[in-house]
Amino acid sequence: MAEPRERTFIMIKPDGVQRGLVGEIIQRFEKKGFKLVALKQVWASEQLLQQHYADLASRPFFPGLVKYMSSGPVVPMVWEGLNAVKTGRVMLGATNPADSAPGTIRGDLCIHVGRNITHGSDSVESAKKEISLWFTDKEIVGWTPANDNWVYE
């Protein structure tokens, strides 16, 4: 395959974990053909979340976001594939579920912007930063799925 594959960071937020949607969200990425290279469940500290959402620190909702995100376990993941960042964002749907199309994760599975069940990197640069914040190099597993030739030319 001539086109490079990239990695993206996807995180299932506390509401997605509490509602039992982890399996369905993983299944959607697997069915699309992306490769899961890192996954864990953690109860994130406020300090880690402040680093993760640092670009939103000046926004009025920032304290509530950090408090909410540290209210329960989250499932951070790294997915790999062609155009993983862009396609991952499309699969998640708009940040506000009311603006998300049916068929997207947020369009199908949530209602309120404050409980939009997932986070996804918005650029390759953001993905690299987020991945390094949540995972060590040893936690990311390089491997080749048996169906790779059936997903990519």
From TrEMBL:
Keyword ATP-binding: yes
Gene3D superfamilies attached to this UniProt entry: Nucleoside diphosphate kinase-like domain
GO annotation terms (biological process): CTP biosynthetic process; GTP biosynthetic process; UTP biosynthetic process
Listed name of the protein: Nucleoside diphosphate kinase
Signal peptide, first to last residue: none
Residues binding ATP: 13, 61, 89, 95, 106, 116
Residue intervals of the Nucleoside diphosphate kinase-like domain: 5-142
Catalytic reaction(s) noted: a 2'-deoxyribonucleoside 5'-diphosphate + ATP = a 2'-deoxyribonucleoside 5'-triphosphate + ADP
EC number(s) stated in the UniProt entry for this protein: 2.7.4.6
Keywords for the protein's UniProt record, in alphabetical order: ATP-binding, Kinase, Nucleotide-binding, Transferase
Family, per entry: Belongs to the NDK family.
GO molecular function terms listed in the Swiss-Prot or TrEMBL record: ATP binding; nucleoside diphosphate kinase activity
Superkingdom of origin: Eukaryota
